[in-house]
Amino acid sequence: MTKSKPSKLLLRALSGETLTRPPVWLMRQAGRYLPEYRELRTRAGSFLELCYTPELAAEVTLQPIRRFGFDAAILFADLPLVADALGQKLDYRDGEGPVLEPVRSVGDLARLDLARLHPRLAPVYETVRRVAQALPNDVALIGFAGAPWTVATYMVEGGGSPDHAITKRWALGDPEGFQRLIDLLSDAIAQYLLKQIEAGAEAVQVFDSWAGALPASDFRRWCIEPVARIVRTLKAQYPDVPVIAFPRGAGMHYAGFARSTGADAVSLDSAVPLEWAREHVQRDGCVQGNLDPQVLVIGGEAMRRETDRILQILGRGPLVFNLGHGIVPATPLEHVARLVEQVKGWTG
Amino acid sequence: MTKSKPSKLLLRALSGETLTRPPVWLMRQAGRYLPEYRELRTRAGSFLELCYTPELAAEVTLQPIRRFGFDAAILFADLPLVADALGQKLDYRDGEGPVLEPVRSVGDLARLDLARLHPRLAPVYETVRRVAQALPNDVALIGFAGAPWTVATYMVEGGGSPDHAITKRWALGDPEGFQRLIDLLSDAIAQYLLKQIEAGAEAVQVFDSWAGALPASDFRRWCIEPVARIVRTLKAQYPDVPVIAFPRGAGMHYAGFARSTGADAVSLDSAVPLEWAREHVQRDGCVQGNLDPQVLVIGGEAMRRETDRILQILGRGPLVFNLGHGIVPATPLEHVARLVEQVKGWTG
Q1: For the segment A164-203, what is each residue's pLDDT rounded down to a tens digit?
Q2: Residue A204, pLDDT above cutoff 50
Q3: How many other C-beta atoms can be found within 10 angstroms of the C-beta atom of residue B40?
Q4: Taking burial as the number of CB atoms within 10 A of a residue's CB, which of B89, B161, B228, B250 is the most buried?
């Protein structure tokens, strides 16, 4: 069997290749810091309608590619969509983020139904198809989903929360019951990502944004194992589609995370020291990250210096240049342009 | 020179001794989960008045000792008091936490004055004296303060914040200016702790509650170095008073933290794996922690099992049993009683 080698920079890096200069994209690169996004947003109805309208969601996905020439586009969507697609009522209130009718017991799981998933998410798959058609030849398309633990926190808390207290109490106090929610989510998320791949996603990223909230003794059960299960399901059908795992805030659990989950690449938050990451994470494959989003807000010499440090320390191995967390609305456009220029111009 | 050996369990553990059973106290053990606290709170005026009224603050400090027989009392106060004492307007609004008039530039530092510190904090020192007088012979008294980085986040943001964005931008964009705030705070906090020791505190804990928000490249400058500076100042006058450092969320930076700061003991958050902590932190001395506060809310078998794991893995070396973060208001009293009973009854 011969296998064609990927030619897009992102896919080459994710497959473990060390490149002359790393590919660059930024988490939440489509969003409120862009005037063209804010303009389009006023035309769309609710945030949920925006996510479910392929024409608009595709346009939003493409906006940052046109403006900055990133090496990858990432599907515009939001982590709790999968809960909505399972039948949990989801709403977005202005400035408040997602609001859901909480699921807090095994009994509540009866309200959820895997059979609704694909019909409800069909517009998202259509968005992926449209973006895949529209992207320049050298730009890769990344699909994405939240990891089971992180999606569960939204479902159980009923939205974002500072401490995920109710979710933790369920997970710690009734692990068998909570496992049923996590298993359902693992299946749903894997199916969701498979459909994104079928529709044209060339890589996928699994966001475990609240991995850092897990007590140490529960990290394996609620972060590593569900992510590993999703990776296995994806790899069984699409062994060559790379998976990026982002266990934000995982601290020392970042060591060996690619091996323990089967992910091809690991996305580093900004608290991870670069030398440590080179030694404990990059030795297993590609790493992604990890400029602090606030450094991008500041720009100037601080940004130039921190960007160069990442390139110098992690750029000698497989690297995807990115932030350590999503871009924030206060980010000046010219800083993003300069960052992309610096990464693209790096010659090692 | 002979030096008398400490006899209180807490002080013996902090000095590096492995005990038959570890001492136990809980962060935020004085507070809203206690009916006697809530009752007293209705009699006091504002939260700030409570902190500054020695009779009441001492009573609040003693309440959990009477009820549960902890091995240590910790001064009842709050992290932003030192900002208030430097002259920054501080207010507590119900359910909102501290609100401060933000300090956001070197120019704003002119509003702060180290000379006001001790007059304003005199009632706190009086609280320490009263508690020291009133405590049973075998219970140690811990003084405390926030670390410079954490206090700075409150001062710059104007209160609590999800991402400390403004503070990070100042620190990253104008490190020389921000250093002046950190230096001022390092001095103020060291002076504050010295006075607590003079008044009767037998150990002190420095809370860097937001250490985990620091980008990796800034961790040394804004967490390790200011804490090390405070420890040096304290040790110059009171070499035998142990210092507990709590860099919450520090992840892999926990490795060697006692050595790099000079602290006697390191308090672990709940995300730190126990085996990892034994290898990378406890080899340098005493560790403290790290039961997840939500496990204390759940109680039952989960609490018994997690408590036992901490005792089994960290109890063979110097350990102070504690939570990984402050006790939460939803905590049932009987769970606390059972936890203390389990730790005190542990026979290895």
Answers
A1: 999 999 999 999 999 999 999 999 999 999 999 999 999 9
A2: yes
A3: 15
A4: B250
The percent of residues in chain A predicted with pLDDT above 70, rounded, is 99
**In whole angstroms, how large is the CA radius of gyration of chain B?**
19
Q: What per-residue confidence (pLDDT) applies to B1?
A: 44
The better pLDDT of the pair A42, A64 is held by A64
Task: Please give the Cα distance from A115 to A191 (Å, whole number).
Answer: 11
Residues on chain B touching A250 (C-beta within 8 angstroms)? 251
Q: Using CA atoms, how far apart are residues B283 and A239, in angstroms rounded to an integer?
A: 43
Angle at B131 between CA B125 and CA B136, to 5 degrees: 150
Instruction: Give the closest residue to A64 by CA, choosing from A144, A135, A146, A145.
Output: A135
pLDDT less than 50: residues of chain B: 1
| Count of other CB atoms within 10 angstroms of residue B176 | 7
| DSSP H helical ranges for A15-108 | 35-43, 47-51, 54-68, 81-86
- Sign of CA pseudo-dihedral A25, A28, A34, A37: positive
Q: How far apart are CA B143 and CA B157, in angstroms?
A: 26
Nearest by CB: A298 against B169, B213, B272: B169
Return contacts of B110-114, CB within 8 angstroms, 24+ apart: B111/B87, B112/B86, B112/B87, B112/B88, B112/B184, B113/B86, B113/B87, B114/B86, B114/B184, B114/B187, B114/B188, B114/B191
What does pLDDT average to over chain A? 96
Q: Can you give the C-alpha Rg of chain A in angstroms?
A: 19
User: What pLDDT, on a 0 to 100 scale, did the predictor assign at position B331?
Assistant: 98
- Predicted confidence at residue A94, as pLDDT, reads 74
Give the closest residue to A191 by CA, choosing from A253, A89, A114, A243: A114
CB A140 within 8 A of CB A128: no
Burial of A133 (0-12, 13-18, 19+ CB in 10 A): exposed
Q: Is B271 close to A215, i.e. CB distance below 8 A?
A: yes
Taking one residue from A and the other from B, the number of pairs with CB-CB distance under 8 angstroms is 115
Structure tokens at B17: 């001794």
Task: Return residues 135-164 of A near B (CB < 8 Å).
Answer: 162-163
User: Smallest CA–CA separation between A159 and chain B, in Å?
Assistant: 15
The CA distance from A275 to the nearest CA of chain B, in Å, is 10
The Cα B310–Cα A29 span in angstroms is: 42
Check whether A205 has a pLDDT greater than 70.
yes
- The pLDDT assigned to A3 comes to 58
For residue A8 the two structure tokens come to 């897009």
Q: What is the reported pLDDT for A1?
A: 45
ipTM rounded to 2 decimals: 0.94
Catalytically annotated residues of A: 28, 32, 41, 78, 154
Separation CA A171–CA B5 (nearest Å): 44
pLDDT the model gives residue B94:
74
Q: What is the pTM of this model?
A: 0.96
